[in-house]
Amino acid sequence: MSHLTDDELVLHFYDEDGADIIRVERHLETCVDCARTYEGLARTLRAVTPPAIVEAPDDTAAIRRLLLERARERDALILARAQAWLTEPRAIALAWLVPVLYPLVVPAIIAGSRSEDALARGALVVLALLLACAGPAVAVLVLRESPAGGPHANRLRVLGSVMATITPSLFMLVARGGRRLDWWYAAIAAAALLALVPWPAPAGSTPRLKRLHRLSSVLLGLFILGHIVNQSVGFVSVPSYAAMRGVMQLASEQSVSYVLIIAMVALQIFTGAAMGLKRVTIGVFARNLQAVSGWYLAVFLFAHVFSPYLARAAAAAPVAQALTPPHLLANASAVASLPYYLLGVSAFLLHIGLYARLAARGWLAESSVRRLSHATAVVGAMVVVTVGLSLCGIHLIR
Questions:
Q1: Measured between alpha carbons, how far is 373 from 349 in angstroms, rounded to an integer?
Q2: CB environment 8-26: b (16+ within 10 A), e (fewer)
């Protein structure tokens, strides 16, 4: 007669012997040795405390927090190194170098566009465009550092940031007015001299100014958005661009609509200027980003609306009217308009995006606002790239 093994007895104790349970029960009833062994084994197993069932912890949130903390520490280290290098004199010099060196960037774009190799041509044009559009980024960087000098140094810093931001638009105003480079550098010198003049304290934003600014921004934003959509359509199809542009020109050339556009632009510039300097806070990134985008938009809209009068005075046609569809790399006189338009589109999308993000915080959780902001930033970057390709004469359908 064969006896039960220890494994069979343990499985029977825990009721895990399955189909063999009947056979084991009958064997224990008939076999005294196995029954005695099973009783001893059962006493031992009952004395042993079964292990508690412990679920694996969900540490996804902890890992996410750890990664975010490490990313913040890395960013803080990089920022600390930048702050240690970017002293007050260096920050002021960096801001004022942007308008001083800007006239050299336009020939760089032309030289890059004339390269024989297609890959090299694209890389050189993109690199030159990044340099031409770096002014607002430099302004945000300069305004991020805490002031260490007196009031004159602080004014030079703010004025340099303003000049670095509006350089492409201001350069277009000077160029369309038929002025030479000596006028450009005279404008830079005049702006620098404003640091010697005491500034009145900015009044800031009042509820009435805010209402006027938002109302004019809605009406003017629809007009600008139509132009952006039209230019994006130009990347897909030239005939569609021409048809939509004809309709928009017909509507905007009406005396009533043109006066309304000029009034909205003037209202935007006036209310934005009243609130703009008040929003500048050294070290506060989001507020300075909004102020910088507003500065560029103000000069961009002024140059865009009044450029026909300047071009007529200089006996030259504005780029927007001379090129249909626009191909800003076609000639040297049109190249300077490329960073001008690209920064205008970027500033518009960024400015309304910051307002939308601020408004969304009152309705959505911070995590949802952050995800929507990232998605919107990706879409905005795609729009800017699409407009840039269209302005460079690249179209999917001719």
A1: 12
A2: bbebbeeeebeeeeeebee
Is the Cβ–Cβ distance between 290 and 278 less than 8 Å?
no
Whole-number Å distance between alpha carbons of 57 and 96: 55
pLDDT in tens, the chain (398 residues): 577 787 887 777 777 776 777 787 878 788 877 888 888 877 777 776 566 665 666 667 777 788 888 888 887 787 677 667 777 788 888 889 999 888 888 777 777 767 777 777 777 777 888 888 888 888 888 887 655 566 777 888 888 888 999 888 888 878 765 567 788 888 888 888 888 877 766 555 567 777 777 777 777 788 888 888 888 888 887 787 777 777 777 666 666 777 777 788 777 777 776 665 555 555 556 677 888 888 888 888 888 777 666 555 444 444 444 344 556 666 666 777 788 888 888 988 888 888 888 788 778 887 888 888 888 889 989 988 888 888 877 777 76
Other Cβ atoms less than 10 A from the Cβ of 305: the count is: 16
Angle between helical axes of 135-144 and 285-313 (0-180°, round to 10): 140
Q: Give CA–CA dist 95/90, Å, rounded.
A: 9
Taking the C-alpha atoms of residue 183 and residue 198, their distance in angstroms, rounded to an integer, is: 25
Q: Which residues pair with 237 in a beta bridge?
A: 397
8 A C-beta contact, residue 394 and residue 329: no
The backbone region for 116, taken as left when phi is positive above 0, alpha when psi lies in -120 to 50, beta otherwise, is alpha
Neighbouring residues of 308: CB distance < 8 A, sequence distance ≥ 6: 318, 321
CA 350 to mean position of chain CA atoms? 6
